[in-house]
């Protein structure tokens, strides 16, 4: 931990989200010390770290049970030796996103909406990430290239929605985010901006007064899709952020990825969806994991996922059952599995 952050902890002032973001856990040895784990039990992979470094925010790590290698949050961030496994069908770009990348920072895969990679980095490296091999360097637009992206959107009257993704779109500053939202609001045919983000979960301090004000003042309909996989990820700070966002009219949805030994059981998914609904967040998608190189150990079969959805339908009201989907390259939308 840096001296700067140590001094913050010793003071009466809580760390800002920027300070937390600048002091991520990136050393597996530090993570092992904090969580009181024996490295010989579950060794980490130097090869995996080289390809996709460890990044974990301290507020997220605080929710992991010490001494428990089976903790569902730890499994999502631990650079396991299983990432070295090479499995046929698991590739670097399973969604063929390069084919839908007409301009830097812009993906146009579906009718009526485009995706902008608003930030080239995340606050956390989820080991199952489908963009772990994505070329963010080539998709970090300059101001001139942003203008080209806005012109592309404005020239296509069929585009009514912009999805802000990344990386994580909330990893940029409030000032940059406000500028981006204002530019989109100036495009007449746009009605909706959807923000796909993990930051309200992993660094809930990101939901600042400035950000909430920016969202409240926009003419656009705003939808925030948070990414939460397990009820253990929800603490009081996360819940406060949900409340502040819903209070200004932001529609709150959640998408999860079904992950082996994390949430691939009915109890975990039922608990998650009930907890989210208690705080004004509706389940949206339950994604099948993409077949990304290095992530085979998270994979679950369609049959198992389908059985889980059947159990959820029998146990929950329909509005608490997410759609089980897979993304297939070239399809006009997500493919529903069950």
Please name the defining characteristics of this protein.
alpha/beta, 2 domains, 338 residues, 9-stranded mixed β-sheet, globular, TIM Barrel, 9 strands
Structure report:
- The protein folds into two domains: about 5-85, no CATH class; about 95-335, Aldolase class I (TIM Barrel, Alpha-Beta Barrel).
- It contains 13 helices and nine strands.
- The protein has helices spanning about 5-10, 15-20, 30-35, 45-50, 60, 70-75, 145-155, 175-185, 200, 210-215, 235-245, 265-275, 300-315, and strands at about 105-110, 115, 160-165, 190-195, 220-225, 250-255, 280-285, 325, 335.
- A nine-stranded mixed β-sheet has the order 1-2-3-4-5-6-7-8-9.
- Strand 2 (about 115), helix 7 and strand 3 form a beta-alpha-beta unit.
- Helix 8 (about 175-185) runs parallel beside helix 10.
- The chain is globular, with a radius of gyration of 20 Å.
Which overall shape is indicated by the principal axes computed on the Cα atoms? globular
Oligomer: single chain
- The CATH topology label of the largest domain is TIM Barrel
Helices and strands, in N-to-C order?
A: HHHHHHEEHEHEHHEHEHEHEE
CATH architecture of the largest domain: Alpha-Beta Barrel
Mean pLDDT: 90
Q: How far is the first residue's CA from the last residue's CA?
A: 45 Å
Task: Please compute the radius of gyration using only Cα atoms.
Answer: 20 Å
Low-confidence stretches: 6-10
The number of domains is 2
Helix content: 25-40%
Number of strands: 9
């Amino acid at each position: 931990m840096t001296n700067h952050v140590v001094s913050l902890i010793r003071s009466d002032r809580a760390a800002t989200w920027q300070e937390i973001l600048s002091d991520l856990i990136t050393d597996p040895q530090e993570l092992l010390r904090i969580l009181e784990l024996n490295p010989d039990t579950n060794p980490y992979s130097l090869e995996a770290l080289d390809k996709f470094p460890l990044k974990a925010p301290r507020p997220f790590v605080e929710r992991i049970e010490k001494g428990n290698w089976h903790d569902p949050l730890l499994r999502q961030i631990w650079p396991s030796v299983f990432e070295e496994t090479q499995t046929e069908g698991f590739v670097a770009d399973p969604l063929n996103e390069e084919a839908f990348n007409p301009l830097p920072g812009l993906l146009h895969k579906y009718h009526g909406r485009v995706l902008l990679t608003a930030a080239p980095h995340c606050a956390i490296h989820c080991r199952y990430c489908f963009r772990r091999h994505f070329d963010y360097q080539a998709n970090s637009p300059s101001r001139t290239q942003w203008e080209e992206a806005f012109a592309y959107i404005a020239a296509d009257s069929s585009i009514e929605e912009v999805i802000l993704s990344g990386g994580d779109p909330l990893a940029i500053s409030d000032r940059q985010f406000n500028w981006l939202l204002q530019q989109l609001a100036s495009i007449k045919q746009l009605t909706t901006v959807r923000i796909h983000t993990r930051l309200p979960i992993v660094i809930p301090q990101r939901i600042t007064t400035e950000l909430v004000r920016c969202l409240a003042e926009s003419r656009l309909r705003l939808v925030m899709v948070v990414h939460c996989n397990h009820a253990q990820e929800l603490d009081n700070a996360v819940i406060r952020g949900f409340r502040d966002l819903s209070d200004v009219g932001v529609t709150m949805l959640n998408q999860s990825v079904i992950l082996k030994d994390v949430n691939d059981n009915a109890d975990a998914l039922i608990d998650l969806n009930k907890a989210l609904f208690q705080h004004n967040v509706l389940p949206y998608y339950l994604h099948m994991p993409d077949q990304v190189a290095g992530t085979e150990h998270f994979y679950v079969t369609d049959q198992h996922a389908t059985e889980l959805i059947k159990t959820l339908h029998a146990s929950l009201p329909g509005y608490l059952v997410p759609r089980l989907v897979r993304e297939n390259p070239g399809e006009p939308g997500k493919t529903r599995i069950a």
